[in-house]
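Hi P.,

Sorry for the delay on this. The queue was packed all week, but I finally got your sequence through. Input first:
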Amino acid sequence: MTELPTELFIVLILFQSQVYGLVRTDDQSSSFFKQKNNARVKGHVIKTLNAASFTTCAQLCLVNSLCNSVNFKTRGVCELNDELPNDSNVESDHKVMLGWWISIQMDTFIFTSLGARGQYGPTNSHGYNGSNLEAKVQVEKGIQSWTVPFTGNYIIEAYGASGANGTCSESSCQGWSAGGYGAKITGTFTLKKGTRLKLIVGQEGLLRFPHNYSPGGGGGGSFVVVSDMNTPLIIAGGGGGGGITVNGAARDGDPGQMSTNGSRYGGSHGGGGLRYEKTKKQFSPQLPPFFSSSGAGFKKDGDSAGGTQAQSFLNGGAGGFGDTQGGFGGGGFGLAYSPGGGGGYSGGGVVMDSGVGQAGGGGSINNGYNQVNQAGYNHGDGRILIKLFQ
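Then the structure:
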């Protein structure tokens, strides 16, 4: 029979008040509970309790502010100690498992759009100078590359960008409508040192000024992808651009979605969104006033008329370009009376009804565990946070 190791680590993590296990934590550090077989702390027991398992015993220590270690006996006795183990207070005992808290440091890496705006991403990483990403990020055609520094568990938060608001100053359509907010997608991943990641930080869609009417460009999605096989870890969808408000009826853009599909005839399975003319029941019309671009997905570009379509992640992630710009990360452009769809894992679509368009939000994907997914969370440019517990 294989002999069990005498020491092992039980990972106990809490993040932003969401319990993933057991923890003692603050904003910059967390804890592991280290376990050693056949040992005990002597002379520092402050309380003796019954516990069905070592994990339960550790939980009892967690809720006692004086507890720093435990002696767990195989018959279910849990002794809480007020001291950590050291050379003078540890003795051998083959019927006991010793456990104690050790502090760990939590490193957070924050990726931004680095000041880039519109359809194209940043050209360099100078904006990270002075941070823990200085000289660690390479930028090529807006896509940021970063190498995982340590093997460990990482919490990744991705925020999609919002779509631009739609505005109109003509007498028939005075007012504005809101661009959809980007999704926030959070998951935990076990990553190995040396793994190369490619990241797109979604950028907010843009308006055209001055103009009598300006539907909003769609927001770009935020992507974290393993470079070797272009495997998505996490993607947060961008919001659809705001449409033109006609006769008091606002055509707000849809939010970035929690699901993998885009909305408003959005794409699926990593595809781009569709454009659909509801009155004529026609897909991909090429005549005015339905000029715009749906959002791009991970694999496929958006559909467009009257400008340059939004590009998929695999094709570089540029936003669409027409009368307005879609955000980097696959956001579609707006033109005439039609806004742009949001980018994401699958692109947001655009629906034209009674001569006025409405844009869908991009879809999201989360291949991590301990998932927390929220639609319509983020306003402005996207961002990506990668948090290491070491």
